[in-house]
Amino acid sequence: MKKIAEQIAEELKKAFAECGYEERFGMVTVSNRPDLCQYQCNGAMAAAKQYKKAPIMIANEIVEKCAGNPMFAKFEAVMPGFINITLANRFVSKALAGMAAEEKLGVSTGKPQTVIVDYGGANVAKPLHVGHLRSAVIGESVKRMKRFMGNKVIGDVHLGDWGLQMGLIIEELRDRKPELVYFDENYTGEYPAEAPFTISELEEIYPAASAKSKEDEAFKERAHRATVLLQSGNPAFTALWKHIMAVSLADLRKNYDNLNVHFDLWKGESDAQPYIPDMIEDLCSRGIAYESQGALVVDIAQESDTKELPPCIVRKSDGAAIYATSDLATILEREKLYQPDQYIYLADKRQELHFTQVFRTARKAGYVKPETRMDYIGFGTMNGKDGKPFKTRQGGVLRLEYLLKDVEDAVFERIQENRTVDEDEAHKTAKMIGLAAIKYGDLSNQAAKDYVFDVDRFASFEGNTGPYILYTMVRIKSILAKYQEQSGKTADTSALAAEEDRAYSASEVELMLAAARFADTIERAADELAPHKICQYIYELSNAFNSFYHENKILAQEDAAKQAQWIALISLVLRVLNVCIDLLGFEAPDRM
Questions:
Q1: Taking the model in full, what pTM does it have?
Q2: Exposed/middle/buried for 12, CB within 10 Å: 0-12, 13-18, 19+?
Q3: Which domains does the chain have, with CATH numbers?
Q4: 118, 345 in Cβ contact below 8 A?
């Protein structure tokens, strides 16, 4: 199905061509002055330069050529040469009926591609905290958008599971439980199937070990040796590592599930290790990497750079691999297994240099095809009301599960004030609304920007918030349910295409046009990796619906045909909102 803007452009391109101009000047956009018109064409302004003619003269020619077209209610040229377009209401209604008849509501999906979304996941052996929120929430939305566009999307949590932290945990465990068989060099039997620690103990062990390593040089050296032994395949430490992974993953899965964030792959840095030796040899043998002050580096600077960029270090002077090494090896693994057309990485925006180095090295080495798209979404910080990174009242980093609970409790209190549902349903509803509050609060901001996390504002049922969007949807659900109860009928979206002439209120037209922008919004958001554009759109759509709702008595409307058309319209709006919030990673309750 062609979008409204495309259908208008077809008419204008034909008009420009018939008037002797290039048809490319017939492009249209949504008007930036909705008080004057709905769409606009600025092509006459551009054509004037090429054809040495006053733009208003060209605009008038196009207006004359399109006179009488039933698509337009108003089509006029205004100084100095703009073409203002207001559509016929029946044309918009029919366009919406066509949109409603399609599974993806008019979204053009294009040729499917394989896309890898790297969430830059958490380190194992640590609980998820607020610092992990943005990569999870933004990554999940981007993954869903790309998948909705018809692509094969592979989401990889990409855990930190292979660094010094493992050596620290192993040595701290040795100090606490020296009797464990993993520390008996003479032990030759099978290692236990059960982990020698719980998730609670593990989460306490790592920070204790990390603090100790800062004060105890001997302990730090032991941890380094343990890390080297693990990475060299030591059986005892490998068995411990597997226990650490199993216990951590069970807890991480539970917490990510509570965020409604899901991964196709649970890989980590360890999965890339087998690729590193051959990769280093390849980079050296082809002269791409060279030695500098004992380290192995790759020059990535380009003539077009506006600032000096340092080389990418692929191996430290002591022979150790670093994040860049692991990330490059991971690209080799992904190319071998999936041959992606696009990579999308999520990380704190302070990692920009790292990803520039990795991407350029991968291209220089020919590890990815020249046409492969490599995107980095660098996100800002989630701050408290003091403008500093979000902390607990005690100054510590807040666990993610506690943040979710705090917001859920705030929403539960709001629901209980109304006393419209029982306590059990109120808790379930509060969980859904709380998640919407958190995700919408995050995603409504442009990813690169820092933002203030304000529980009271995010949990509000009014304003630009997740709960407001859900409240709008619940209102529509209630109207549709009452309509079915009163009439015995369900919404019939074909009613949108009714031929009868009738008067349309301004709020109805605004709602129709807002619904019609769905496909353009989704396509642009998916291409630009910008969930905030969906948030902005559904806020505007919700406002348009609520204005329409307050100005029109839908259920009391006595004209059955008009009522059926209204019901069809709000049913389509609900469907649009459902798709959008699913792309953002949350869902709506039936009641609030």
A1: 0.93
A2: buried
A3: 4-87 (3.30.1360.70), 164-258 (no CATH)
A4: yes
